[in-house]
Amino acid sequence: MRSIVLKGFLAALLASAAALAGAQQAPAAGASAAAAPAQVQVIPNDGSPPIALPPGTTSTITTTPLLEPQPGDTNAQRAKSQPLNNAPFWRGVHDSGKTPGTVNNRDLGELGVLVQPITAYPGTRATTAGEAWRQIRNWWIVPLGGLAILFIVAAVFGYYWWKGPIGAGHERHTGRLIERFTWFERVVHWSTAITFTILAVSGAVISFGKFLLLPLMGGLLFGWLTWFLKTLHNFVGPLFAICAVVMFVTYLHSNWPAKSDVKWLLRAGGMLGGESPPSGRFNAGEKIVFWAGLLLLGVAVIVSGFVLDQIVPGLATTRSDMQIAHIVHAVFALLMIAMFIGHAYMGTIGVSGSWQAMKTGYVDEGWAEHHHPLWHEDIVAGKVPAQRSVPPPAAREQPAA
User: Fold this and answer.
1) Is residue 19 part of a domain?
2) Helix crossing, 142-163 with 319-345: angle to 10°?
3) Phi (first) and psi of residue 178, to 5 degrees
4) I need a labelling partner for 26 at 20 to 30 A (CA). Which of 8, 180, 301, 358 fits?
Protein backbone atom coordinates (compact mmCIF):
# COMPACT_ATOMS: atom_id res chain seq x y z
CA MET A 1 0.00 0.00 0.00
CA ARG A 2 2.76 2.37 0.92
CA SER A 3 4.65 1.57 -2.34
CA ILE A 4 1.57 2.40 -4.41
CA VAL A 5 1.22 5.78 -2.73
CA LEU A 6 4.94 6.47 -3.27
CA LYS A 7 4.73 5.64 -6.99
CA GLY A 8 1.73 7.91 -7.42
CA PHE A 9 3.54 10.77 -5.73
CA LEU A 10 6.58 10.43 -8.00
CA ALA A 11 4.37 10.35 -11.10
CA ALA A 12 2.60 13.52 -10.05
CA LEU A 13 5.94 15.21 -9.37
CA LEU A 14 7.32 14.32 -12.82
CA ALA A 15 4.16 15.56 -14.54
CA SER A 16 4.39 18.89 -12.71
CA ALA A 17 8.05 19.29 -13.78
CA ALA A 18 7.23 18.56 -17.39
CA ALA A 19 4.43 21.11 -17.41
CA LEU A 20 6.69 23.74 -15.92
CA ALA A 21 9.39 23.13 -18.60
CA GLY A 22 6.86 23.40 -21.42
CA ALA A 23 5.63 26.71 -20.07
CA GLN A 24 9.18 28.13 -20.06
CA GLN A 25 9.98 27.04 -23.66
CA ALA A 26 6.83 28.49 -25.25
CA PRO A 27 7.83 32.21 -24.97
CA ALA A 28 11.32 31.46 -26.29
CA ALA A 29 9.92 29.76 -29.38
CA GLY A 30 7.64 32.68 -29.97
CA ALA A 31 10.49 35.15 -29.66
CA SER A 32 12.59 33.14 -32.12
CA ALA A 33 9.76 33.14 -34.61
CA ALA A 34 9.44 36.89 -34.34
CA ALA A 35 13.21 37.54 -34.89
CA ALA A 36 14.53 38.41 -38.42
CA PRO A 37 16.29 35.59 -40.33
CA ALA A 38 20.09 35.62 -40.14
CA GLN A 39 22.13 36.70 -43.22
CA VAL A 40 24.12 34.08 -45.09
CA GLN A 41 27.66 34.98 -46.28
CA VAL A 42 29.38 33.25 -49.16
CA ILE A 43 33.18 33.55 -49.33
CA PRO A 44 34.43 33.01 -52.93
CA ASN A 45 37.62 31.05 -53.49
CA ASP A 46 39.05 33.58 -55.97
CA GLY A 47 40.00 36.11 -53.32
CA SER A 48 37.09 38.53 -54.01
CA PRO A 49 35.08 40.07 -51.08
CA PRO A 50 32.44 37.92 -49.32
CA ILE A 51 28.88 37.93 -50.76
CA ALA A 52 25.98 38.56 -48.33
CA LEU A 53 22.64 36.98 -49.35
CA PRO A 54 19.52 38.99 -48.35
CA PRO A 55 17.26 37.29 -45.81
CA GLY A 56 14.48 35.23 -47.25
CA THR A 57 15.95 35.08 -50.75
CA THR A 58 16.44 31.92 -52.69
CA SER A 59 19.91 31.74 -54.25
CA THR A 60 21.99 29.10 -55.93
CA ILE A 61 25.57 28.86 -54.71
CA THR A 62 27.97 27.41 -57.23
CA THR A 63 31.43 26.39 -56.01
CA THR A 64 34.39 26.22 -58.42
CA PRO A 65 37.25 23.87 -57.51
CA LEU A 66 40.82 25.28 -57.45
CA LEU A 67 42.62 24.90 -60.77
CA GLU A 68 45.79 22.87 -61.02
CA PRO A 69 48.97 24.96 -61.58
CA GLN A 70 49.88 25.15 -65.25
CA PRO A 71 53.41 25.63 -66.70
CA GLY A 72 52.33 28.76 -68.52
CA ASP A 73 50.78 30.47 -65.50
CA THR A 74 51.57 34.07 -64.80
CA ASN A 75 52.70 34.94 -61.31
CA ALA A 76 49.20 36.32 -60.54
CA GLN A 77 47.53 33.11 -61.73
CA ARG A 78 49.95 30.97 -59.74
CA ALA A 79 49.23 33.01 -56.61
CA LYS A 80 45.58 31.93 -56.90
CA SER A 81 46.07 28.33 -57.95
CA GLN A 82 49.05 27.63 -55.70
CA PRO A 83 49.73 30.39 -53.17
CA LEU A 84 53.36 31.03 -52.10
CA ASN A 85 54.68 29.40 -55.26
CA ASN A 86 56.26 32.22 -57.29
CA ALA A 87 58.06 30.02 -59.82
CA PRO A 88 56.63 32.00 -62.77
CA PHE A 89 58.29 35.14 -61.39
CA TRP A 90 61.74 33.55 -61.31
CA ARG A 91 61.12 31.90 -64.66
CA GLY A 92 60.46 35.37 -66.00
CA VAL A 93 63.71 36.59 -64.47
CA HIS A 94 65.59 33.70 -66.06
CA ASP A 95 64.05 34.37 -69.48
CA SER A 96 64.26 38.14 -69.21
CA GLY A 97 65.47 40.05 -72.21
CA LYS A 98 63.77 37.84 -74.77
CA THR A 99 60.84 40.19 -75.11
CA PRO A 100 61.43 43.10 -77.52
CA GLY A 101 61.68 46.37 -75.68
CA THR A 102 63.56 45.16 -72.61
CA VAL A 103 66.85 46.92 -73.24
CA ASN A 104 69.75 47.20 -70.81
CA ASN A 105 72.36 48.88 -73.02
CA ARG A 106 70.53 51.17 -75.41
CA ASP A 107 73.66 52.16 -77.33
CA LEU A 108 74.53 48.58 -78.22
CA GLY A 109 70.99 47.19 -78.10
CA GLU A 110 71.81 44.49 -75.56
CA LEU A 111 68.71 42.85 -74.11
CA GLY A 112 68.22 43.28 -70.37
CA VAL A 113 69.08 39.71 -69.42
CA LEU A 114 69.03 39.29 -65.66
CA VAL A 115 70.01 35.62 -65.73
CA GLN A 116 71.82 34.24 -68.79
CA PRO A 117 70.83 31.04 -70.61
CA ILE A 118 72.19 27.64 -69.68
CA THR A 119 75.73 27.18 -71.02
CA ALA A 120 78.52 24.64 -70.59
CA TYR A 121 82.13 25.55 -71.31
CA PRO A 122 84.81 22.82 -71.45
CA GLY A 123 85.32 21.56 -67.92
CA THR A 124 82.22 23.21 -66.43
CA ARG A 125 78.74 22.08 -65.50
CA ALA A 126 75.72 23.01 -67.56
CA THR A 127 74.60 26.14 -65.73
CA THR A 128 73.90 29.78 -66.40
CA ALA A 129 76.51 31.40 -68.64
CA GLY A 130 77.78 33.73 -65.92
CA GLU A 131 78.31 30.86 -63.50
CA ALA A 132 79.90 28.73 -66.23
CA TRP A 133 82.36 31.57 -66.92
CA ARG A 134 83.17 31.79 -63.21
CA GLN A 135 83.75 28.05 -63.03
CA ILE A 136 86.11 27.83 -66.01
CA ARG A 137 88.07 30.83 -64.71
CA ASN A 138 88.40 29.70 -61.09
CA TRP A 139 88.54 25.94 -61.66
CA TRP A 140 90.81 25.75 -64.71
CA ILE A 141 92.34 28.94 -66.09
CA VAL A 142 93.71 30.44 -62.86
CA PRO A 143 95.04 27.27 -61.18
CA LEU A 144 96.40 25.58 -64.32
CA GLY A 145 97.82 28.83 -65.66
CA GLY A 146 99.54 29.51 -62.36
CA LEU A 147 100.99 26.00 -62.26
CA ALA A 148 102.22 26.32 -65.87
CA ILE A 149 104.07 29.55 -65.09
CA LEU A 150 105.60 28.09 -61.93
CA PHE A 151 106.67 25.01 -63.89
CA ILE A 152 108.37 27.11 -66.58
CA VAL A 153 110.18 29.23 -63.99
CA ALA A 154 111.34 26.13 -62.12
CA ALA A 155 112.40 24.46 -65.39
CA VAL A 156 114.58 27.32 -66.61
CA PHE A 157 116.32 27.78 -63.28
CA GLY A 158 116.72 24.04 -62.93
CA TYR A 159 118.31 23.87 -66.37
CA TYR A 160 120.59 26.79 -65.51
CA TRP A 161 121.69 25.03 -62.32
CA TRP A 162 122.28 21.80 -64.30
CA LYS A 163 123.95 23.12 -67.45
CA GLY A 164 124.76 26.77 -66.86
CA PRO A 165 124.82 29.26 -69.74
CA ILE A 166 124.89 27.66 -73.17
CA GLY A 167 128.23 28.23 -74.93
CA ALA A 168 130.00 29.64 -71.90
CA GLY A 169 133.77 29.22 -72.34
CA HIS A 170 133.47 27.78 -75.86
CA GLU A 171 133.38 30.96 -77.95
CA ARG A 172 136.68 32.30 -79.16
CA HIS A 173 137.20 36.02 -78.65
CA THR A 174 138.46 37.80 -81.76
CA GLY A 175 137.93 41.43 -80.84
CA ARG A 176 136.09 41.98 -84.12
CA LEU A 177 132.49 43.07 -83.70
CA ILE A 178 129.46 42.20 -85.82
CA GLU A 179 126.28 44.23 -85.63
CA ARG A 180 123.55 41.79 -84.64
CA PHE A 181 120.79 44.33 -83.97
CA THR A 182 120.48 47.85 -85.30
CA TRP A 183 119.45 50.73 -83.05
CA PHE A 184 115.92 50.65 -84.49
CA GLU A 185 115.62 46.87 -83.99
CA ARG A 186 116.65 47.20 -80.36
CA VAL A 187 114.21 50.05 -79.72
CA VAL A 188 111.39 48.00 -81.21
CA HIS A 189 112.38 44.91 -79.23
CA TRP A 190 112.70 46.76 -75.91
CA SER A 191 109.43 48.65 -76.45
CA THR A 192 107.61 45.39 -77.07
CA ALA A 193 109.32 43.68 -74.12
CA ILE A 194 108.58 46.52 -71.67
CA THR A 195 104.92 46.88 -72.62
CA PHE A 196 104.46 43.11 -72.51
CA THR A 197 106.07 42.91 -69.06
CA ILE A 198 103.71 45.59 -67.75
CA LEU A 199 100.74 43.70 -69.14
CA ALA A 200 101.99 40.37 -67.78
CA VAL A 201 102.59 41.70 -64.26
CA SER A 202 99.31 43.62 -64.08
CA GLY A 203 97.37 40.69 -65.52
CA ALA A 204 99.00 38.30 -63.05
CA VAL A 205 98.02 40.52 -60.11
CA ILE A 206 94.44 40.73 -61.39
CA SER A 207 94.29 36.94 -61.85
CA PHE A 208 96.25 35.64 -58.86
CA GLY A 209 96.35 38.60 -56.49
CA LYS A 210 93.08 37.68 -54.79
CA PHE A 211 94.69 34.47 -53.57
CA LEU A 212 98.28 35.65 -52.96
CA LEU A 213 98.26 39.39 -52.21
CA LEU A 214 94.84 40.11 -50.70
CA PRO A 215 95.51 38.16 -47.46
CA LEU A 216 98.82 40.04 -47.04
CA MET A 217 97.80 43.56 -48.09
CA GLY A 218 94.21 43.79 -46.94
CA GLY A 219 91.19 44.81 -48.96
CA LEU A 220 91.79 48.57 -49.10
CA LEU A 221 95.37 48.55 -50.37
CA PHE A 222 94.76 45.60 -52.68
CA GLY A 223 91.68 47.32 -54.11
CA TRP A 224 93.66 50.46 -54.99
CA LEU A 225 96.50 48.35 -56.42
CA THR A 226 94.25 46.31 -58.69
CA TRP A 227 92.34 49.42 -59.80
CA PHE A 228 95.62 51.10 -60.79
CA LEU A 229 96.98 48.02 -62.54
CA LYS A 230 93.71 47.39 -64.37
CA THR A 231 93.68 50.97 -65.64
CA LEU A 232 97.34 50.70 -66.62
CA HIS A 233 96.63 47.37 -68.32
CA ASN A 234 93.84 48.88 -70.42
CA PHE A 235 96.02 51.77 -71.63
CA VAL A 236 99.24 49.82 -72.22
CA GLY A 237 97.44 47.10 -74.19
CA PRO A 238 97.00 49.16 -77.38
CA LEU A 239 100.64 50.33 -77.11
CA PHE A 240 101.78 46.71 -76.99
CA ALA A 241 99.66 45.97 -80.06
CA ILE A 242 101.42 48.75 -82.01
CA CYS A 243 104.86 47.57 -80.84
CA ALA A 244 104.06 43.96 -81.75
CA VAL A 245 102.99 44.89 -85.28
CA VAL A 246 106.15 46.96 -85.83
CA MET A 247 108.29 44.18 -84.39
CA PHE A 248 106.71 41.57 -86.66
CA VAL A 249 107.41 43.66 -89.75
CA THR A 250 110.95 44.53 -88.58
CA TYR A 251 112.08 40.97 -87.83
CA LEU A 252 110.10 39.11 -90.50
CA HIS A 253 112.90 38.90 -93.07
CA SER A 254 115.18 36.98 -90.68
CA ASN A 255 112.56 34.53 -89.39
CA TRP A 256 111.49 32.65 -92.50
CA PRO A 257 111.72 28.87 -91.98
CA ALA A 258 114.84 27.14 -93.39
CA LYS A 259 115.99 23.54 -93.85
CA SER A 260 118.52 23.91 -91.05
CA ASP A 261 115.64 24.50 -88.61
CA VAL A 262 114.52 20.86 -88.89
CA LYS A 263 117.91 19.55 -87.73
CA TRP A 264 117.97 22.13 -84.94
CA LEU A 265 114.56 20.99 -83.69
CA LEU A 266 115.42 17.29 -83.89
CA ARG A 267 118.41 17.89 -81.64
CA ALA A 268 116.56 20.40 -79.42
CA GLY A 269 119.19 22.98 -80.20
CA GLY A 270 121.83 20.94 -78.41
CA MET A 271 120.25 21.79 -75.06
CA LEU A 272 120.23 18.15 -73.94
CA GLY A 273 123.83 17.48 -74.91
CA GLY A 274 126.27 17.75 -77.76
CA GLU A 275 127.07 20.73 -79.93
CA SER A 276 124.44 23.19 -81.00
CA PRO A 277 123.20 22.49 -84.56
CA PRO A 278 124.05 25.16 -87.16
CA SER A 279 121.56 27.98 -87.56
CA GLY A 280 121.16 31.27 -89.33
CA ARG A 281 120.73 34.66 -87.72
CA PHE A 282 117.89 33.22 -85.66
CA ASN A 283 117.60 29.55 -84.72
CA ALA A 284 114.44 27.45 -84.87
CA GLY A 285 113.63 28.13 -81.22
CA GLU A 286 113.64 31.87 -81.80
CA LYS A 287 111.52 31.42 -84.91
CA ILE A 288 108.94 29.45 -82.93
CA VAL A 289 108.71 32.33 -80.47
CA PHE A 290 108.31 34.71 -83.41
CA TRP A 291 105.60 32.79 -85.28
CA ALA A 292 103.77 31.03 -82.46
CA GLY A 293 104.33 33.56 -79.70
CA LEU A 294 104.36 36.95 -81.37
CA LEU A 295 102.02 36.18 -84.27
CA LEU A 296 99.52 33.48 -83.26
CA LEU A 297 99.29 34.04 -79.51
CA GLY A 298 99.83 37.76 -79.95
CA VAL A 299 96.94 38.14 -82.38
CA ALA A 300 94.59 36.18 -80.10
CA VAL A 301 95.59 38.22 -77.05
CA ILE A 302 95.44 41.57 -78.83
CA VAL A 303 92.07 40.98 -80.54
CA SER A 304 90.43 39.64 -77.37
CA GLY A 305 91.99 42.50 -75.41
CA PHE A 306 90.50 45.03 -77.81
CA VAL A 307 87.09 43.42 -77.27
CA LEU A 308 87.50 43.65 -73.49
CA ASP A 309 88.67 47.25 -73.83
CA GLN A 310 85.55 47.91 -75.94
CA ILE A 311 87.53 49.75 -78.59
CA VAL A 312 86.40 47.67 -81.59
CA PRO A 313 84.09 49.91 -83.66
CA GLY A 314 80.62 48.52 -84.25
CA LEU A 315 81.05 45.48 -82.00
CA ALA A 316 78.13 44.83 -79.65
CA THR A 317 79.97 43.83 -76.50
CA THR A 318 77.23 41.85 -74.82
CA ARG A 319 77.75 39.78 -71.69
CA SER A 320 78.33 36.58 -73.63
CA ASP A 321 80.80 38.33 -75.95
CA MET A 322 82.80 39.66 -73.01
CA GLN A 323 82.84 36.29 -71.26
CA ILE A 324 84.15 34.46 -74.31
CA ALA A 325 86.68 37.23 -74.98
CA HIS A 326 87.92 36.98 -71.39
CA ILE A 327 88.38 33.20 -71.66
CA VAL A 328 90.33 33.55 -74.91
CA HIS A 329 92.39 36.44 -73.54
CA ALA A 330 93.29 34.69 -70.30
CA VAL A 331 94.22 31.34 -71.88
CA PHE A 332 96.38 32.74 -74.67
CA ALA A 333 97.96 35.39 -72.43
CA LEU A 334 99.09 32.72 -69.96
CA LEU A 335 100.53 30.63 -72.80
CA MET A 336 102.29 33.72 -74.13
CA ILE A 337 103.73 34.55 -70.69
CA ALA A 338 105.02 30.99 -70.29
CA MET A 339 106.65 31.06 -73.74
CA PHE A 340 108.23 34.48 -73.25
CA ILE A 341 109.65 33.48 -69.86
CA GLY A 342 111.69 30.86 -71.72
CA HIS A 343 112.62 33.41 -74.37
CA ALA A 344 113.70 35.95 -71.75
CA TYR A 345 115.83 33.29 -70.04
CA MET A 346 117.61 32.39 -73.28
CA GLY A 347 118.12 36.06 -74.10
CA THR A 348 119.67 36.98 -70.74
CA ILE A 349 121.47 34.33 -68.69
CA GLY A 350 120.61 31.20 -70.67
CA VAL A 351 122.98 31.85 -73.59
CA SER A 352 126.31 33.51 -72.92
CA GLY A 353 126.67 36.88 -74.64
CA SER A 354 123.02 37.16 -75.72
CA TRP A 355 122.23 39.90 -73.22
CA GLN A 356 125.12 42.00 -74.51
CA ALA A 357 123.82 41.60 -78.06
CA MET A 358 120.45 43.13 -77.23
CA LYS A 359 122.00 45.74 -74.94
CA THR A 360 124.64 47.12 -77.32
CA GLY A 361 123.60 45.60 -80.64
CA TYR A 362 127.02 44.00 -81.20
CA VAL A 363 128.54 40.55 -80.71
CA ASP A 364 132.04 39.28 -81.14
CA GLU A 365 132.74 37.44 -84.37
CA GLY A 366 133.62 34.34 -82.33
CA TRP A 367 130.19 34.44 -80.69
CA ALA A 368 128.48 34.55 -84.09
CA GLU A 369 130.67 31.72 -85.36
CA HIS A 370 129.82 29.50 -82.37
CA HIS A 371 126.08 30.18 -81.88
CA HIS A 372 124.95 31.06 -85.42
CA PRO A 373 127.52 29.61 -87.83
CA LEU A 374 125.32 29.84 -90.93
CA TRP A 375 124.78 33.54 -90.29
CA HIS A 376 128.52 33.97 -89.76
CA GLU A 377 129.23 32.19 -93.06
CA ASP A 378 126.93 34.57 -94.90
CA ILE A 379 128.75 37.52 -93.35
CA VAL A 380 132.17 36.14 -94.32
CA ALA A 381 130.89 35.45 -97.84
CA GLY A 382 129.60 39.00 -98.12
CA LYS A 383 125.97 37.96 -98.46
CA VAL A 384 125.06 39.82 -95.26
CA PRO A 385 126.85 43.02 -94.16
CA ALA A 386 128.64 42.87 -90.83
CA GLN A 387 127.64 46.49 -90.22
CA ARG A 388 124.13 47.57 -91.20
CA SER A 389 124.03 51.00 -89.59
CA VAL A 390 126.46 53.79 -88.71
CA PRO A 391 128.94 52.06 -86.38
CA PRO A 392 130.07 53.43 -83.03
CA PRO A 393 133.76 54.39 -82.71
CA ALA A 394 134.77 51.05 -81.17
CA ALA A 395 133.17 49.13 -84.02
CA ARG A 396 134.89 51.28 -86.65
CA GLU A 397 138.25 50.60 -85.05
CA GLN A 398 137.69 46.82 -84.97
CA PRO A 399 135.64 45.83 -88.01
CA ALA A 400 134.72 42.20 -88.54
CA ALA A 401 136.67 40.26 -91.14
Assistant:
1) no
2) 10
3) -120, 135
4) 8
